[in-house]
Amino acid sequence: MLTVYLTSYAFWLLLGLALLLSEFFIPAMVAVFFGIGALVVGLLTLFGVIDSLPYQLVLFALISVVALWYLRRHFNRWLRGSEVDLAARDQDDAGLLGVRVAVLTDFIDGIGHVQLNGAKWDAESNESLKAGDTAWVLNHSGIVLQVSAQRPEKS
């Protein structure tokens, strides 16, 4: 009786859906590939391509491991991105380049503070900037802005 249920297409399709849904509750990017394997076995069983439990188990294991091995890397990059993707993107993700800032402190040895959007930022400049001056953001490195008294040209 149990063997009949395990070899039915409904079991494999339900198992595949349960595994896919479990990924929403415990995201580890593993269960989804076993879900894909179960769905493929369920569809192949539904269409009569395979019917015995040993073939179903072997095919389920093979499809799941192959999907896990080859597709996980692509799914992770697609869902989370990668460091390579970050480096290739526009460096002005925060919309900082070319923005006007107010100089809060005199720049000593090229280091000072500016105000941007109501917040105090650490800044660097090759120019001698004084408190009260206006400057523009040329670049940024994390939370440190590189500023200049000259407005950058738009490209």
TrEMBL record:
Residues 96-147 form the NfeD-like C-terminal domain. SUPFAM superfamilies: NfeD domain-like. Its main location: membrane. This is NfeD family protein. It comes from the Bacteria. Keywords: Membrane, Transmembrane, Transmembrane helix. It is found in: Membrane. The keyword Membrane applies. The chain crosses the membrane at residues 6-22, 29-47, 53-71. It is a multi-pass membrane protein. The keyword Ribonucleoprotein does not apply.
